[in-house]
Amino acid sequence: MQPVLAFDVYGTIIDTQGVTVELERRLSDASKAGEFAKRWREKQLEYSFRHGLMGAYVPFTECTREALVFTDRALQTGLSDNDHDHLMAVYAELPAFPDVVPALDQLRDAGIRCVAFSNGTEEAVSQLLTRAGVRSHMDVVISVDEVKRFKPDPAVYAYLRTWLETRPENTWLISSNPFDVIGAAHAGLRSAWVRRHSDAPFDPWGIEPDMTVPELETLAERMMR
Amino acid sequence: MQPVLAFDVYGTIIDTQGVTVELERRLSDASKAGEFAKRWREKQLEYSFRHGLMGAYVPFTECTREALVFTDRALQTGLSDNDHDHLMAVYAELPAFPDVVPALDQLRDAGIRCVAFSNGTEEAVSQLLTRAGVRSHMDVVISVDEVKRFKPDPAVYAYLRTWLETRPENTWLISSNPFDVIGAAHAGLRSAWVRRHSDAPFDPWGIEPDMTVPELETLAERMMR
After folding, report:
1. Which residues of A belong to the active site?
2. What is the pLDDT at residue B1?
3. Averaged over A78-92, what is the pLDDT?
4. Which of A:100-129 have CB within 8 Å of B?
5. Which residue of B has its CA nearest to A197?
6. ipTM reported for the complex, 2 dp
7. What is the DSSP code string of A159-195?
8. In principle, which of A30, A152, B90, B171 could form an S-S bond with A24, CB 3.0–4.6 Å?
9. Domains of chain A (ranges plus CATH)?
């Protein structure tokens, strides 16, 4: 039986570091752009974990905006409300990694079902993927927003399986984010880690992915063997 | 009626940056010690959030050790297993901030009950506070380990209140960690943020502490007014 592949979006399909160029324009000290982008992303994830743990779910876009404001304060970069709005708009139009569309097309040509599975809302993720030219290459967008929990809560992976009507051993979570890979594996799914940077470390929790690939075209090849 | 004060331990009473001196000795590049200490601490907290969110509780010491190994890998500092063991031992003997004992003594002299409330296990925290010369200045150590959840899960603050048999409006959580302050406030407790660094930002979630102080002696003065 063919596997079903659920792709994480932010960091796996969409390059969240793509916001760096705009930060270089907006920050009075452009040399802070790289650090700003990195901390913004880390804080966004921390906020999703904490909102989830507190049972105080908010749409992921709110985590993103709160993290943007925090990073601005922490790095004392003095952005205006207008800058925040503008950066949020840029964040909604980030590019896809170049390997995404070729890999999805190979997989779908081989009859393998590919869906998006994200912390973002269905609307936000659909728009993001459409603008990045990826939406039409995937079957459907599945969002944690339906269960009002965030990855890596086991409830969201259970929801994914219910949605797909698949067996755990046949359902793959594909992500560049170790927390997502570990969450899916812990919930009984199969998992592939997209190690987009060759020196990216994996969390030493004793839970390993079933497959590690440097990018999605390698994933496609290995899935079709 | 007198308030009851529940003090967070790591970062509020105990100086987690105290491990930096030992890192300077152990790392081949001593200039990385500050960044290592900072990232170790951040990862330790992230791991507690994620273990909590996954419903996969482990003792906090395990989060600390996993975060140490991760940071070593991420910064490519090449520590040995022996170095990890040694650093974990140092982490169990970190010093208290100098304002802690004078503030606790003032509060207790005024008849205000002071307890420790930590993500650490009762045993680990009691030993840590004893070595730091603080344990005998507090009534009791209350640990999240009893409920197998981590801050800021509302269940741990509810457990604290049940333990203390106090009303929410009379129960204060005192912490230098914004996530803990927000978690306590969200759970209906009163909260004080110990802003140990004057440029430390607070999370822009629309939940504010009832009191902000630069250190614990100021807290003691304000509580006794």
Report:
1. 8
2. 75
3. 97
4. none
5. B74
6. 0.97
7. HHHHHHT--GGGEEEEES-HHHHHHHHHTT-EEEEE-
8. A30
9. 4-14+94-223 (3.40.50.1000), 16-91 (1.10.150.240)
